[in-house]
Specification:
The structure is a single chain. The protein is of the alpha+beta class. The chain has one domain. It is 21% helix and 26% strand. It has 6 helices and 16 strands. It has helices at residues 64-70, 89-96, 106-115, 117-134, 214-224, 237-244; strands at residues 8-11, 20-22, 26-28, 37-39, 42-44, 47-55, 60-61, 81-86, 141-148, 172-175, 194-199, 205-209, 251-255, 259-263, 270-273, 281-288. Strand 4 and strand 5 form a beta hairpin. The two termini are 32 Å apart.
Length: 297
């Protein structure tokens, strides 16, 4: 199956298209040999929820046709375009002045910011200067720090119901999904903006996505199997879509430290990976309506 015209991609990464690969679709975690995570004194095999969807491993470079399909249209918005980029050098220097790589938990990150209050305020100031350049005159807010173990086939999991001292094997990873809240629907998810995720860990991390909006996915389901529509909602749409279209290509972006993606994660199927990594994965996430239109020049 080939890519369809959908969510566009604006790539400002220094490594350009070498950072991006494509495959031939999905597989299911239950059918895969899940690699063990070994980090310091912790060893475990990640557990996945029933029906969890992962990407096949047959990655290859993008063709000229793929690149043409991913080229955004004339109307670039926060819901129909994914942006990739590098942080400014001055901001990278701010990050590096803080000993954030000593962190092993989110609490550690906050403790470092408290301990180095002056440096943290300077970083926060420069972060806001940078974010204001891509905010498209819309409000934005800090969402969270994301931390993940190395060597994961999926970093996406639901932690909110777990006790603070939970074991790694208590976590169930979910694979490909679309973010959602009770306020939205498949046909309104595009109205809820996007997010920027900044990699400030020591190693590359991978962002995986499908270049279709939820409405496009819904319409493809409708065209192929209209009888399934009563079962389609924000939670079930990834499973139903991939059951009908298991060979729809997945796109993978390798983000080096201090690189970022901006994506409408309410409006597309996506996941993240730390496969092959040896150190803790760390990201900083903001919600907003970010739109980096100047990258087209």
């Amino acid at each position: 199956m080939i890519l369809r015209k959908g969510i566009g991609l604006i790539n400002s990464l220094k490594q350009q298209q070498d950072a991006i690969m494509i495959n031939s679709g999905i597989c299911y975690a239950a059918q895969e040999n899940i690699p063990e995570v070994s980090f310091r004194k912790i060893k475990f095999t990640p557990q996945f929820q029933e029906g969890a969807i992962l990407a096949k491993s047959d990655w290859c470079s993008l063709s000229d046709k793929d690149l043409h399909i991913l080229k955004p249209g004339n109307k670039i918005t926060d819901y129909n375009t994914i942006f990739l980029g590098d942080l400014p050098d001055s901001l990278i220097k701010r990050f590096k002045k803080l000993p954030l790589h000593e962190s092993e938990t989110v609490d550690d990150i906050y403790a470092i910011f408290r301990k180095h209050e002056v440096l943290a305020k300077k970083l926060n100031n420069d972060l806001n200067i940078f974010l204001n350049t891509i905010a498209d005159n819309k409000p934005y807010k800090f969402r969270c720090f994301g931390v993940s173990f190395p060597n994961l086939l999926s970093v996406s999991a639901k932690f909110y119901h777990l006790p603070k001292n939970h074991a790694p094997t208590d976590v169930q990873y979910i694979g490909f999904h679309n973010d959602c809240t009770t306020a939205m629907s498949i046909h309104t998810a595009h109205r809820y903006g996007n997010r920027i995720s900044i990699n400030f860990g020591r190693e590359e991390r991978e962002f995986l996505f499908v270049n279709l909006s939820l409405i496009q996915a819904y319409n493809m389901i409708k065209a192929k199997n209209p009888e399934s529509l009563p079962d389609v909602n924000l939670v079930t749409i990834p499973q139903i879509f991939f059951k009908l279209f298991p060979n729809y290509p997945i796109l993978k972006v390798k983000l080096k430290p201090y690189q970022y993606y901006i994506a409408p994660t309410d409006n597309c199927f996506h996941d993240g990976r730390t496969l092959g990594n040896k150190t803790f994965d760390m990201t900083m996430i903001f919600f907003g309506g970010f739109c980096k239109k100047l990258t087209l020049q």
